[in-house]
Each structure stands twice: as structure tokens, then as C-alpha cells.
């Protein structure tokens, strides 16, 4: 739990190594409901989430890692495969992240739709953190391979797959992280 709402935002950091317990069902309901409050031009609700837990995680590991190996990715050495499988076996919940593409929408360009989905994922990350859990967004595990997204029931003509959120209890104390000074990223335009 975090002290103030603003502290909740600034103290969030990604935690890759996660264990059980995952958020309880009522907490997961709150986390996913938070995603529905993302800004969304045209009320397209382009975000889609696929829950993967229990035995389905080992099945996902098989499908994703086989697909990555078949794709010929040289980074998928036997050692890497072993470590990814080990990591996945300890994470109690994955959420597959997908974006429903509204092709040729006359009012809302695709980049705006994608931003709405990104904002919904950010709400999930923040809500997860506010409830005292850890999360990590990964675009490994064959995210960009069509067969992986199709295996999750997401037709690649209709959906763009955006990766997985690993969610659970941090395996170690959450270290503080130094964030950049916002002034490096902000200018003021005075109209002159
Ligand atoms: C769309 C997206 C995909 C990412 N994919 C990966 C990934 O595959 N592997 C990885 O190590 N980090 C990945 N990251 C970065 C981590 O999720 C995390 O943001 C990063 O480690 C910084 O931690 P922080 O969120 O505490 O600043 C990704 C981030 C985003 C936004």
C-alpha cells in the first residue's frame, strides 16, 4: 500500500521476478476495472486482456518458446530457454495485452487508438502497485510472432499483440529507483 495517490505513481517500478500470491480475484477485478478508466477517443475501447494463470502458464511457455526457436532467433539459446521457463514458472499470473485495430476509423487515427490501449495498461500497472503487488511488461515470449497471438485467440488481422504483463508478489524487496529530473523533458512555449 502507498501513502498518497501521488506517491503511488512515483514509487511504482517494474519488478520482473515475481512469486505467488497473485492478486486475489476481487483485487484482480479492481485492477482490470481500472483499465476501463483510460482516456479513449471515440469510446472505441480498443484494449483486450487475456488472463493466463495456473497450468496455462506452462502451456504458454511451450507455445511461445517453441515459436521463438522455430523463428530462428539466435538469442534463444538453451540457457536462455531454461531461464525464461524458470522465470515463467514462478510468475503466478500473466496478462496478454492486445489492441483491437479499428481500421480506417474516420475520427480516430490508429495512433490515438494505440495510445488509449497503452494508457489502459498503465492503469493496470499503477493499480497493481497500489494494491501492493509487482508487475513487469515484457515483449519477449514471442510477442511479435503471429502464431503466439493466434494461440491466445487473437486474430492478427484484427488485433495487434503488445506483450505480456507478469503480475505477482515481488520476489525481493523493491529497490528505490532514481528517476530523471522532469526539467530535462519539459520546455515552455510562451507564444512568442
Ligand atoms: C511496451 C514495453 C515492452 C517492454 N518489453 C520489455 C522486455 O521484453 N524485456 C525487458 O527487459 N523490459 C521490457 N520493458 C521494460 C520493463 O517493462 C520496465 O519498464 C523497465 O525495466 C523499466 O522499469 P520501470 O518501469 O520501473 O521504469 C518493456 C516496457 C514496455 C513499455
Automatic annotation (TrEMBL):
**Lineage: superkingdom:** Bacteria
Key word NAD present in the record?
yes
User: Domain Nitroreductase, which positions?
Assistant: 10-168
Cofactor(s) in the UniProt record: FMN
Quote the Gene3D superfamilies the UniProt record gives.
Answer: NADH Oxidase (3.40.109.10)
One example of the protein's molecular function in GO is: oxidoreductase activity
Q: What class of enzyme is it?
A: oxidoreductase
Keywords, A to Z, come to:
Flavoprotein, FMN, NAD, NADP, Oxidoreductase
The molecule here is called Putative NAD(P)H nitroreductase
The source organism is Bordetella genomosp. 7
